[in-house]
Each structure stands twice: as structure tokens, then as C-alpha cells.
Amino acid sequence: MSIFTLKKPKPAPQAKTGILGWLTKHLFSSKINTVLSLLALYLLYVILPPLIDWMIISADFSAKTNAECTREAACWSYIGEKMNLFMYGLYPLEAHWRPNLLLVITLLIALIVRFSYLFKSFKYKVILSLFAVYPLIAFFLLYGNDFLGITIIETNKWGGLMLTIVVASVGIVASFPIGIFLALGRQSKMKAIQFLSVTYIELIRGIPLITILFMVAVMLPLFFAEGIEFDKLLRALIGITMFQTVYIAEVIRGGLQAVPRGQHEAADASGLSFTQKMVFIILPQALKISIPNIVGSFIALFKDTTLVLIIGIFDMLAIAGLATSDTDWLGRKTEGLVFVAMVTWVLLYLMSHYSKTLEKRFNTEH
């Protein structure tokens, strides 16, 4: 009778584990990957050292004037000097507490939503109430109201990062529910609703955002009676919402089509109405599937907000150009653009990271 002796497993080859294994797998797994990796490393070697030297090592952080800053490196004192302009545009200095207070309220609401599981029995009522009241609070804080004793600040003084966030936020919040209705309308069996939804989506998708902004800024007032004025920022928000809505609708339509047919049949077999089937069965699954594409559309919208410059609205990028008109800080546009790029990257990264968090949170695969 044969006797088998259990042998200890051999350790994996060193070339397959540790740092060497990671490098082999991700950077040098083939001849093409090796060439591309070496090229990328060479570019990093050429770009990074002078960039770090310009941004950090040789940069000026404490200079008081432009003359005290060197021309061979960044002058971050300029950013500190213009920080209010980058953040709030021409918003009056004495009213900066209003957007700051709104930021605190926004963070509090985010915390309440994040920990809503602590009050499960009425969390949806709380969340819906917050989202219903929040736009009013934001409007009265930023714009003002004579009845409430808050000084009105016209929107032509809004600017900087505050304006960028306002435009992107309104576009995102307003376009999302409308996009859901359009996506459902496009799949509706009622021909009139389907025709109107398809016509709107295909019409707006065929027009660039810059054209829509130009239309709402220049052409739309021509259709109003004489004496009627329509706020320019509000017109831009309407145009951006119209544009973004169709892309959200198409993203959600893709999610609706990805839901297995069996889910529809199971909902029908359970005796659910069309509304119940969509709200409780189909739409949650479609939204979960569409999270990456929805966030991708929101990120694209955030970057497209710079186009509002063509109608005379100064977002953060436009402020970088406006700030260089100060004769005391001539020649510092590069620092302004780099600062805007860093802030934008951080915000977009947070959006992307939150998207991944939502995907993991709603992941039901095992």
C-alpha cells in the first residue's frame, strides 16, 4: 500500500511577489509595456524636478509685494493676496460670512444624511425636508431679502469658486430629477410622451453648450416684453440645466435597459402598478448601475461651467485672468492658473472618490 507524504508548499518565486512582482506585473509585463513605462519614467524625470523646484523649493510664500518675489519661481503670496477674489469674486467683503455660513449648513446636512441610519423610522422625511428647505436657505443667504433684513447682493457681483459651485450645484440638482422623468418618458408606451421626450433629448443633444448659453444670454431677452429683465445668472442656470438634463436622461436610460427583463416580469407578477414597479423595483437598480456614468456627467458639467465666461459671468477660471489686471501683481497669471487647477482637481477627485464609495455602498453582488 502506497503512503503519500504531504509536502510543504513551495514559496512563490521572488519575481512574482513583493515590489519586484508588482513592477513586473504592472510596468514591465511585455515589451510594449516596458517601452511605455520607461518613456513615462523619463518624462517624469524631466518634468517633476523643475516643477517641484518652481512650486515649492524656490517659491516665495512670505513676500509682501510683487517686487519681492522672484521671477524664476512661484509667488504664492499673490494667491494669498487675491484669495478673497478667487473664492468670492466681487462679492462684498462684509458679506463673506453668508457663503461661509452656507458652507457650514451644507456640511451639517451632509453629516445628517450620512448618519441618517440612526433615525431609520423617519429618515426619508428628514432628508426630503432638508432638500426642500436647503435651496431657500441658500438663495436667501447668497442673494439676500429685504423682508428678512439681509442686504440684496446682485448676481453680477458673484464670482470665483463660490459661483462655480453654485452653477455646478444647481445644474446637478435640477437636471437629475428632470433627467429621470425624461428617461422614463422616452421608454413610455404613451406615444405622445415618448415623442416629446425623444424630440427634446435629440434636439438639445445636437446643440453645443456654448450655443445654448449664447441663446439664453442674447436671444432669450428678445422674446420678452419691453421693460422685463431676466437675471443673467438665472438664464445661464436654465441653459445649463437644459443641456445637462438630456445627458442624465440618456445615462439613466442605459441603466434602465441594463435591468434584466425578469425584474419587470417579477414586478408585474406581484401585481405592482407601473409607478410602483418603477419606483421600488426598476429605478433603484437602474440608478445603481448608472452611478459611474452619472458622476462622469456631473464631473463634465463642473468643468463646463467655465463656459459661462462668454456671457460675462466670472467663474474661478475667469477670475484668474481678471486678477492679473492688478498693476501691483503683473505677470502672476501662471500662479493663478496653477492654483485654479489644483482646487479644481481636488474637487473633482472628491466627486470621483464619493462615486466609488456609493458604488461599494450599494453593491449587492456577492
From TrEMBL:
Residues 161-351 form the ABC transmembrane type-1 domain. Keywords: Amino-acid transport, Cell membrane, Membrane, Transmembrane, Transmembrane helix, Transport. GO terms for cellular component: ATP-binding cassette (ABC) transporter complex. The chain crosses the membrane at residues 35-57, 101-119, 126-143, 163-185, 206-224, 277-301, 307-324, 336-354. One of its GO terms (molecular function) is transmembrane transporter activity. Belongs to the binding-protein-dependent transport system permease family. HisMQ subfamily. PANTHER family: INNER MEMBRANE AMINO-ACID ABC TRANSPORTER PERMEASE PROTEIN YHDY, MEMBRANE COMPONENT OF AMINO ACID ABC TRANSPORTER. This is Amino acid ABC transporter permease. It comes from Bathymodiolus thermophilus thioautotrophic gill symbiont.
